Amino acid sequence: MICLGIESTAHTLGIGICKNGEILANARSMYKSAKPGEGIIPRKAAEHHSEIFPTLYKQALAQAKLTPDKIGLYAFSEGPGIGACLRTACAAAKYLSAKHRKPIIGVNHCHSHIEIAKKFTGFKDPLTLYVSGGNTQILVEEKKSFHVLGETLDIGVGNLFDSFARELGLQFAHGSAIEQLALKGKYTELPYTVKGMNLAFSGLFTAVSKKIPSTSKEDLCYSLQETVYAMLCEASERALTLTGKREVMVCGGVAQNKRLQQMMGEMAKEHGAKFGVAPNEFNADNGAMIAYTGEILFSRGIRSKLKDCRPRQKYRSDEVRLRL
Asked: Which domains does the chain have, with CATH numbers?
């Protein structure tokens, strides 16, 4: 089977094509705010996705060297995400499914990050740290669903970094901008909040923002990264000890950070566990992961009805049905 997947949960529109687990195409385009510190404006991001979709659709088909009639399944990012953005993928997939009379399937965004990371790491039963803009979770896969062992009690790690970068007046690609500044910084003390395997970041954001007038950007970025990643490692280590897993995986947009990869890798090694992460191209939001996960779900007999397909802004990972 050949599956075309559409991702549009936030600032990125991605269209990917997979054939029996092989990635044939992965086209993507990112909405960028016009001014520093502006962030994602849902209406403008959705307009970007709608306007660029026809071009990106043709680009994906060209990459895969396919014609539309060869697509056998359409998958779309059902949620969680920004409502206005989610509607683009949903509407496009429903249109293509109806036009070509092919099945459609909704995919949870978090689930797709996990599946694509498992593909590249070769892991079968990992403890997963999922870190993205709106989500921060530590989870394991059970027979028919995910079990969330720990998560953020307020904002996601990516949200924290994006918000702080805007306070600093940094341009878009906030995570990488903070990572580069952190390379030149020194540590200054910040609050540290881990509650069992749960975490909280809003107090940390307030504290680091208050230090902007008196502390260099480099020192603040370094200190923020070190504090956040130490919190994530502590909570993940607790989960690893509890579950006894032999594989540790990090996925999601924030998983692109080299320092986080290093710290999580060292933690896993201390416990005799393997550590893995997908290539950065597939940790960033992309359509290939939606197509790949859509194929997996369809092969397990899971189906979506066209009339029931709709965006789900607060679609939790532990609500996903992995198997019948």
From this structure: 2-112+285-319 (3.30.420.40), 120-282 (3.30.420.40)
pTM comes to 0.97
Tell me the per-residue pLDDT of 190-231, one tens digit each, with 9 for 90 and over.
Answer: 999 999 999 999 999 999 999 999 999 999 999 999 999 999
The residues, ordered by sequence, that sit 6+ positions from 106 with a Cβ below 8 Å of its Cβ are: 75, 76, 78, 90, 304, 309, 312
Peptide bond into 103 cis (omega under 30): no
How many CB atoms are located within 10 Å of the residue 285 CB? 26
pLDDT digits (tens, 9 = 90+) for 135-187: 999 999 999 999 999 999 999 999 999 999 999 988 766 788 999 999 999 99
Residue 214 Cα distances to 179, 182, 186, 211, angstroms: 20, 17, 14, 6
Q: How many angstroms separate the CA atoms of 323 and 129, rounded? A: 22
Please give the order of strands across the beta sheet that includes 136-141. 146-151, 136-141, 127-131, 247-251, 274-277
Name 215's Cβ contacts closer than 8 Å, sequence gap at least 6: 188
